[in-house]
Amino acid sequence: MRVAGIMSGTSLDGIDVAIVDVSWPKFELVKFVSTPYSKTMRKRILAVSDADCHTREIARLNFELGEAYAAAVLGCGVQGIELVGCHGQTIYHEGSRCTLQIGEGAVIAERLGVETVTNFRARDMAAGGQGAPLLPFFDWITLTHPEINRVTVNIGGIANVHALPAGAEVDEVFGFDCGPGNMVIDQLASLATGGKLGYDKDAKLGRQGKLNRSLLARLLRDPYFKKQPPKTAGREQYGAAFIAKMVETGLPLVDLIATATAFTAAAIAESIERFVTPEFSVDECLVSGGGTRNPLLMAELQGLMPKSYVHSIEDVGIPADGKEAIAFAMLAASAKLGIASNMPGATGARRRVVLGEFSPSCGL
């Protein structure tokens, strides 16, 4: 079965598409393409993510993003796609209470003539879960090692940790959002460069700055970090209001970027130490997402986890930027096959359920 997985995350980089040939539970990546959002589209998504807004704009974006997702798949130029799985763009997520991802599945199905699966979080939440993280299922079926205790860390806009003890059974896997990923660094980099850069390329800005330890300590006192999993985080915590408070300190922006980088690494490492190591010693930490391209962040994470081998997931054959899109192709395939794909140890759901809602194809 050839499946297209579509992912657009909280970092708002753009649309990632992975075309995957699935022979359950194995897969082969056919093609991965990333399409950046235009500055206008990114600004509009931020506008409905960070502040009160008119429902008209949300409704319009829902359909426009559906068109953009379909165009991104068509732009891959790959034939024979039988199924699409699209996470959508999260514009609001509130724990186990409610969530909203936009990007109309009916539009994708109509434009591509292919059955499309969307709204993956809702069923887990209906079963009492947080609706996220959703990647532990993919990690479990693809990255569990018979002898090595692993954690996987995805550093997108938000950072999350998935625990994979050696030879893990499904009920032994757990995960949670541990706090900010690239989101804080990216916003500060945009401010520092007058909008010319949306991220700290090669950590050049962070390396120019000086870590402010008192600010770092204050940021790490956030009660969220001590809260027991399952738990989720998002732009609600680390969006414009959070950045405004950092800027109010009066510190140079490069110092804020250096401190934000240390904050992200510390939040990940402390979360692993607090919630994972009481269960098992971590031999290996596999990192995916845009954070792998920040050498300062990766070095700081390794420094904070001296007993673990911290390295990119690309070393085991999965593209660091493409993991989430691949995962949503696999989640769509699991939905088509009727396989439950949430992980109660990660989301807190009462039971395992099949995730996703179908927009059927009527053919072209």
What is the topological layout?
Layout lengths: L1 E7 L5 E10 L2 E11 L2 H12 L4 H20 L8 E12 L3 E5 L2 H8 L2 E4 L2 H6 L9 H8 L6 E6 L2 E7 L9 E7 L2 H10 L11 H5 L4 H7 L15 H4 L1 H8 L5 H24 L7 E5 L6 H10 L4 E4 L10 H14 L7 H4 L9 E3 L5
Parallel strand pairs: 1-4, 4-6, 7-10, 10-11
Antiparallel strand pairs: 1-2, 2-3, 4-5, 6-12, 7-8, 8-9
Helix pairs in contact: 2-3, 6-11, 8-11, 11-12
Rounded Rg? 19 Å
Q: Please tell me the total number of domains.
A: 2
Order of helices and strands: EEEHHEEHEHHEEEHHHHHHEHEHHE
Low-confidence stretches: none
Q: Biggest sheet, open or closed, and with what strands and sense?
A: 7 strands, mixed
Strand content: 15-25%
Overview of this structure, please?
- 38% of the residues lie in helices and 22% in strands.
- The longest helix is centred in the C-terminal third of the chain and has 24 residues, at 253-276.
- The model has no long low-confidence stretch (mean pLDDT 95).
- The protein is an alpha/beta fold.
- The strands form 2 sheets. Strands 1, 2, 3, 4, 5, 6 and 12 form a 7-stranded mixed β-sheet that branches. The protein has a 5-stranded mixed β-sheet with strand order 9-8-7-10-11, with helices on both faces.
